[in-house]
Amino acid sequence: MKVFQLSGLHVKKILRCSLSVAILTSFSTVSAYATVAEPDTSLAGAGWVRIEYVSPTFGDAQPNNRNNNVYAAKVNPDSSFSVLGTTSVRAQQCSSPDWCWTVDQVVASIANIRENGTLNTVVTTDAQFIVHGAFTPDGSKVLLLANTVPGVTGTIKRYNLDGTIDTGFADQGVFRDPNSLLSTFYPGLWQDSEGRILVASFPNGLARLLPTGVLDATFGTDGATGSAGGNISSVVEATDGAYYVMLEGNISPGARLRRYTGAGVLDTEFGTEGELTLPTNTSAAQMLAMPEGGVLLLTGSLQTNQSYNARLTHFNRQGDIVAQTEPLLEPSVSFSNFLGLSRGASLTRMPDGKILLSVNSQGAVPLTWSIGSMRLFGLFNPDLTPDIGFDGDNGLYLAEEEGKTIYAFDNTLPLKVTQTVDPKGRIVLVGASINETGHNKWTVARLMGDFNGMTPPPPPPNQSTRQRGTGMPAWLFLKQD
Q: Where does the UniProt annotation place the signal sequence (predicted)?
């Protein structure tokens, strides 16, 4: 079996972009111009906002920890945001006209958030027991994977944006799984460039449905690949129509990367018979399709739900390394690490082909010495060299100023943060985060990006555009919500 080594003679490019520069530097102030990475303060005055919604039927009760969860999100043509999530509602059930009681339910909901970060509308559906969801590629409908028998099988439903069932999908809006291919153990839901629906489950591997909601019998065997030998954590369509499938694995043999052809069989020209094994304890968080059928991975060394040695690696379609960064964080750095990279990390290709990374970073908060979590951003050129014009410094940005700090998107169910670019060229993140109340809130953050042509000029050689201050470590100044 071919094993992927994080370093060695195979590496064509080893790049120096240590995250310690971003976190363990002195307290800084931003230069006069607004950089690409600057929070856009036209959003709620700070560049980010948390929004909580409780259905009026729920009264004054405290929302549970599944309220305001996020399964998918998108930016609309008017720069508003749409969120597919969950909402707590209260409903009445009756066994007879004279015997009724009230029950609490968590239902799928579709929210619209205005460009300025205020809540516009929320539409609830009748869908419960949701385990995954997505907007259709054109954004006009939503797909929901729900439990039928928990942990045994599932259904896929398609809804219109007004919350009504789309009866043109499958059987009156519902795909029922007669062959139990859609086990709701470790599920996932994705769509490819043709609108076909990819559903991952354990132990059944990857299944594919046509956009109409019919199982695609041309894929794999009767519509599914069969067991992939592990839990599928991520799927991405390659530029040549193949699929990269990431399998979780924190112990031997470690996480594994598979490449399936568009017909649902292993591509034996990739790795060893279609599979590449990563080192033990490697957590692979995100994937992004690269040119000529390649793929970009964000990986790290997982230790007790925290990640170290996070880095980007570009593989070609044969499984060889094309380019790779040095670890973005060394284990020796005190009081700073990443939350497990699967918890909301994001990779996005920008309109100009550059690659935007954002991850949740932790550091010690002053006075209390408790741990605060914030969002770290990085921008890389297609060859994985850092774009120093991103923040006017080193290509990495961790907001550490009062009022501008963007806190972590700690979305643990279903580990989803949407990162994209809006019609005005601004960088947008939509997801969920948990604050002191202990339950999720819909959360939006927005960076300036190329809005109004405010991309800064590159700094002079060997000169930072930031003014360094006290010489004290930046982690002393981290804030906590």
A: 1-32
